[in-house]
Amino acid sequence: MQFQLTEVFIEQIEQLISEDNRTALTELLQEFHFADVAELLEELNTEDATYLVKLLDSEITSEALMELDDDSRERILDNLSPSEIADELEEMDTDDAADIIAELDDDIQKQVIDHIEDEEHAADIVDLLRYDEDTAGGLMAKELVRVKETWTVAGCVREMRRQAENVTRVHSIYVTDKQGKLKGRLSLKDLLTAPEKSHISDIYIPKVDYVNVHTEGEEVARIMQKYDLEAIPVVDDNGILVGRVTIDDIVDFIKEEAEKDYQMAAGISEDVEADDSIWQLTRARLPWLILALIGGFVSVSVLGTFSGAMADHAALFFFVPLIAAMAGNVGVQSSAIVLQGLANDSLKGSLFKRLIKEVLLSLLNGLILSIILVVGGMFLLGLDLLFGVTIAISLISVIVTAALIGTFVPIMLDKRGIDPAMATGPFITTSNDICGILIYFTIAKLILGF
Amino acid sequence: MQFQLTEVFIEQIEQLISEDNRTALTELLQEFHFADVAELLEELNTEDATYLVKLLDSEITSEALMELDDDSRERILDNLSPSEIADELEEMDTDDAADIIAELDDDIQKQVIDHIEDEEHAADIVDLLRYDEDTAGGLMAKELVRVKETWTVAGCVREMRRQAENVTRVHSIYVTDKQGKLKGRLSLKDLLTAPEKSHISDIYIPKVDYVNVHTEGEEVARIMQKYDLEAIPVVDDNGILVGRVTIDDIVDFIKEEAEKDYQMAAGISEDVEADDSIWQLTRARLPWLILALIGGFVSVSVLGTFSGAMADHAALFFFVPLIAAMAGNVGVQSSAIVLQGLANDSLKGSLFKRLIKEVLLSLLNGLILSIILVVGGMFLLGLDLLFGVTIAISLISVIVTAALIGTFVPIMLDKRGIDPAMATGPFITTSNDICGILIYFTIAKLILGF
């Protein structure tokens, strides 16, 4: 039952566009779900995509535009006039419309807003532009159903029917006092089952979760997940109900955050996709590589200072990549666990206790790995015992240090208000490479003496 | 307005529990949100937590139990009798109840089910146990509101009020034919605004997204996200409506999947949290470290075969960690972008085109990095030009190879039906380390001749 976009179908659409066959196109596409129209738009060239956006009903294309990735949307919007963009925004919820406006150039923004016919809608959009996009204010929509606590159920149902026309989904009905201050909520179910003559003040639920316009998006996501909410009302600093955030915006937010963290861990510094241009991908990937290169320079220098050992203990140098790899891997493991703990707010107990635990854990890992290393090294590579012990002690020390760095650095960054996700991937690997090599040769020097 | 769990509060609760002061505890906690009760239970020892679960109303504790992590929940359930567990399940939605039952030992499962008084509820739970937990059948709940197409609006509202009592949230009303086959849907809003005497068959929306009981959870998540659905009906192989999946289950699913991928990329092979035991954490972290250690052995051997170069070109060995680090970082970057493309189903075009793009991209990155390396190496480290050129050519070759491996391996694994997330983190780093060192020394040998 799922729609599947085929090559044949795309060619058929392209053919119809080149023939300017508006009737056939409208007939073919009018029953489509907006998400499918969006998929189709992604596959067409900008000119054809723009043609379809102009042709089809704004009710569908406005939703489809929201589903496109930023680049495709920008390319299409560049080909639309301010009044055509305004037509699309007219059909959008205020939060989506505000997101689109924010992507436009300043001079076009004003023209587009002036072209929006519904003045209340335009005013709501302008109002939303004031908020930072990662706050509840930036995530919320103005569309919601609100009733006053003094109304009767019958009056409320009448009023609700009127308001609900502009609201795609009614999750909750919010109850306010005369001044517009949020007092509680009511579900559609409650309203359906209440006697018609009772007052809202008798039946509403005075306990309601809410957030302030300035609450960070991450915190909104946390609250909505913790309390399993599908929508949460947003109030301003005076407690006045100004909007609501719905779970679908939060799902996108959670996904984006997870992808950003994943990319950060992989050493990619901008939000890119596989189909972005080579130039964009280079810009996203080069910075961390340059950092790693600089780290590489440092390790070259460190190794250079121990070059005296080469004559008698050449094998020491063969183990450098092994030591560096273990340091890097252990560091990334430790930092990943701490980062997820921080993200889920599940990191409890003192930093000291956590570091002790990490020491014990890495000692255990290090011991097992060292035994494998020594036994393997002596039997497979024919190392002598003293050399084997040197490598083993170094490996344990390097693993413990790497685990401590991987645990300590993200916690410290987080305490100082810096995004702890910085402290993983290339950053942790590079610093642990250098520390690891330094520790390794220092211990070797002490034991073997060179 | 948010609840904040304080040390003082926890101590107060522990004190009241030790005094067996049931009245005070009930009074204090009865107004609590279940998510907050869950937080409290996590902080108490198993005995105290069990005490509270037994004391408080099942309506709250059943929901709180669902919020706990698996270990804490298991510890508490171990201390409850089958009939006490049944009391909790009685209050849960069928999907949650089935998840809990599935966690219990086989012999206890039967006893618990026998103790559930509501026979229909028990039968529904048993029915759900048939499905694999990662399919739509495993994710769905039996609770939903269904109406027949032949009913009138008035009759429908009556019937709906009755059914809605068991359904926490009414997202959509599903319309079926007499045999129970899914025909379409209706929103509460539509029902509120329709004339009382019209028939459901006149007003329902015949287009409805649905999934089969056997559809994979990942696919359900994809569809619900793509079409912005808050609930999706589930049908069996005969098209009979059997349940619905709601967005809150999917949010958890998406989060878990993202965390699993992130941990895999960080070289952690089991789903662990920072607060798990040292033994669990070791078991999750050791396998990939052993793999990296074996990879390290290989690189030791590779370096050993080039030991002849040490006399004349010692500096070659100093650059080993730099080359290995660049190979690892580039490989992880490439694989991360491909993996996200695969996960989002946004990877289009042929494998050949993608590899060509990756070659161009990595050539560009490699060229820039090589220039920095040669200039920096000559000025800072005083390398001679021939040596600098050797390192530069090696670096470019290593980066291009690493990028190709990082792109090719996950795509190949995915085509063969193996989880492509395997091909990142330690696996990619280790194989790229070895390849990188091999390429580096081979090129150096060709240019410098040793």
From TrEMBL, chains A, B:
InterPro entries: CBS_dom, CBS_dom_sf, Mg_transptr_MgtE_intracell_dom, MgtE_N_sf, MgtE_transporter, SLC41_membr_dom, SLC41_membr_dom_sf
UniProt main location, coarse: membrane
Keyword Iron among UniProt keywords: no
Keywords of this entry: CBS domain, Cell membrane, Magnesium, Membrane, Metal-binding, Transmembrane, Transmembrane helix, Transport
4Fe-4S recorded as keyword: no
Transmembrane domains' residue ranges: 288-309, 315-339, 359-381, 387-413
Localization terms from the record: Cell membrane; Membrane
Pfam families recorded: CBS, MgtE, MgtE_N
Membrane protein topology class: Multi-pass membrane protein
Domain CBS: 140-203, 204-260
Family: Belongs to the SLC41A transporter family.
Record's subunit section: Homodimer.
Function as written in the Swiss-Prot or TrEMBL entry: Acts as a magnesium transporter.
Name of the featured protein: Magnesium transporter MgtE
Taxonomic lineage of the native organism: Bacteria, Pseudomonadati, Bacteroidota, Flavobacteriia, Flavobacteriales
Gene: mgtE
